[in-house]
Write a sequence for this structure.
């Protein structure tokens, strides 16, 4: 394995004496990866196709019909192909796996598989945030960094929009 | 699809007039998901098995031989089974896919598939952070939240350790 | 694990004396799973989108634009969504992963992920058969057996057809 | 897409006049892919670890502790690593996903992911055959054909064996 030594005191937490642990915890705090915005996207969706009960649970298929995305380093359109292949699970959450393509304004076509969960409000009635783990496959070159990082997505809706859509915002862990 | 309305102004950025965009950007800034520590783990590894060149690139197999993890809400051991199935890619990075199991101190067995990349230093010789997208499959109950969120992992090494290992730290996007 | 005892002498081949091995080999011969036709499909395809070189190799995306399938126990249409996400590999073969949906004439929507390889002719110039491992996810009920078996697909072309297509024939291992 | 023209009359079935259909059906019959034996393996298994109910259903983990395989073109050992990650599904079947490694007697290490189902007897009490879709990742060279074909696996047990095991027999579609 490539030995890329990354300065980290994290390991010390596990086996160090108390004072060392304290300083290790401080250093972890400093080294928390930060999230930076990659893009905000509006993904338009078509009428859901009900698959119904399968051997793994209830499924539906939500076609992706287009959209757009914009961020500090990339912008373009969502191609009108792909879908979200949803599964209602035993923990009360709906698993989403959205598989589709972005085309940047300079012509790169990038696959995104965005998996995560939509969960009901917690016991106190508070909404639970919807977080995803987007995985990209870009061509080499300008956007290859999309294939190298760890990313977090959020799922939201634009209250002002009239057509069916989701707002997917993607962040990169620096 | 379940309509879980999550307060977000993100979508406005795409289509709003200038002043609205400004305020939307502010709101996004406020709504950035934060990362909170789930655990720090030490994953012990055995001697790599060289697979060699495959149809997809050069591969090696790194056995996972045990370890431990500790965090604010969970702690326990890494089971001595599983491996990191690495692939050297055309972008100069090594893709890691580590598939193994955690056993908590109260007996839950949790699968983790931790995928990410180890990349060489950038053009200026600066190390590039190694970030992963861990995906968990826990039993229902106390740890089911591990199956619902978006997570980021980091890869490091403990300079003080004598045996082969990696330090994997996992964060949850709140 | 469920102990579904299936009569098989196969294991004896590994550890039995010579005469027993002979009879075991005979029994294996008798127990070879046979392939039975599930359906023949014509899958229409759109113009390929060139992705270009990625970290895993050269990729292209071939949209699936519709089609039909017919077999002894099922018939219907190929939905105009989905694609074949191809990868040129280091063994000279092109890996295909076609992900799309069938809709039967009685309304069931069934996901198929059909993975396999297209390889160049062998050293003697003879064509090499293209074989795939289709995996189905059907709703429960009439077609649930599609989610339970082992399947083999073949890839061909209809010389008489004028529009771009592939002929995918699917067999089930009895 | 590479245009590897494979002689097939299959497509004609869909759109040809009656007499042509008849002859096409005959030709399909002749072109049925045949299954040829790749190997018979005995895969030794350890005590199952109960995971319990998850968001996707009840799971258990069956460690793979070693074994051997033998066939006309390859033989060797099953490495003592890997597992079968089982899921009890809503169709009454248990989904198996066994992920492990073979080492041939000439030193190649080959990954196998063997997915399939174990289903209860049918309504008449007859056992249902257990069929899988093994997918291999071999190094380039002598065994690279394992990464190019379509394969079918069967699952059995050796009544004469005293230790926990499964007999996995693998066939290739010619």
């Amino acid at each position: 394995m490539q030995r890329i030594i990354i300065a980290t005191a994290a390991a010390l937490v596990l086996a160090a004496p108390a004072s060392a642990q304290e300083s290790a915890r401080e250093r972890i705090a400093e080294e928390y990866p930060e999230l930076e915005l990659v893009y905000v996207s509006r993904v338009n969706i078509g009428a859901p196709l009900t698959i119904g009960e399968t051997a793994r649970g209830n499924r539906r298929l939500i076609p992706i019909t287009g959209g757009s995305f914009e961020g500090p380093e990339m912008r373009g359109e969502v191609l009108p192909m792909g879908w979200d292949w949803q599964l209602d699970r035993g923990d009360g959450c709906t698993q989403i796996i959205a598989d589709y393509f972005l085309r940047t304004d300079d012509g790169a076509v990038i696959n995104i598989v965005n998996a995560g969960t939509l969960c009901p409000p917690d016991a106190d009635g508070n909404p639970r945030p919807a977080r995803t783990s987007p995985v990209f496959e870009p061509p080499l070159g300008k956007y290859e960094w999309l294939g190298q990082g760890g990313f977090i997505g959020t799922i939201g809706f634009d209250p002002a929009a009239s057509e069916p859509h989701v707002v997917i915002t993607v962040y990169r862990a620096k």
The first strand of chain D starts at residue 35 and ends at 45.
